Amino acid sequence: MPRSQPNGTPNADLSANAKGTPMGAPNAALTGLAVLVAIAGGVFTLQGIGVPIGHSFMVGDLRWTAIGLVLVAIAAGILWRQRGGRTLR
Question: How far from 32 is each of 7, 40, 46, 53, CA to CA, in Å?
Fold first, then answer.
């Protein structure tokens, strides 16, 4: 049932969802997850190109570089989408 104003006329501005959160507002949990995925992707990428971050089987293996870059790209896509797809100014 559509929301209505106190005088009974339908409200044309439905800028909030049922929980009262503004539509298009960034989800903090999803943003936090994207940041963690980006950090993991960065570590994977650096280890894949040979940066010795700890002692790992991943150091020097280019497969981990590719996996890391994919993770960073996914995180960037999530963060861009959370911003509403707007360009930076």
Answer: 42, 12, 21, 23
